[in-house]
User: Fold this.
Amino acid sequence: MAALVAAAAPARANVGDLELAVKATYLYKFAPFVNWPPAALPAEDPLVICLQGQDPFGALIDRAVAGQRLGGHAIVLRRLARIDRGSGCHIAYVGGSPSQSPYQALAAVEGAPVLTVTDAARGPARGIVHLMLDGGKVRFAVNTARADAAGLGISSKLLALAVQVSR
Assistant:
């Protein structure tokens, strides 16, 4: 929990790089606070974080997830121009691409056990988690109705850190 709060550090020096580093860290730090259906994340399978479309993170996210684990699950990154239900994503950062807009990407995995993450800096589309700057800090909103529809349980600890929780 403390690591998640620390990731919301003020974005001052090198604003863009620090903001992106915090967002990249959030992507895997959300995982311990999400419950996937057992069939969606079998015991020995890796937890897959997909970056759909435009990847603003580059090497920052590679460094952030290097060597990270969620219990017995290794964390694996995939960069995809398009996502769908069969992409194998557990967490999907939706950035949009020429071949699939953020709205199309969200629709493609709607109802699937995928924690969708969108970014106010990349447009108005909203996933289950929506990242934003608030007072110079990276914050997030959570839509519990979308999480419920995806079959995901969101910890009350994560909800308590959100600047907005909606249904």
Q: What stands out?
A: The longest helix spans residues 15-29. The chain has six helices and ten strands. Helices lie at 2-6, 15-29, 59-65, 102-109, 144-149, 156-161. Confidence is low (pLDDT under 50) at residues 5-13.
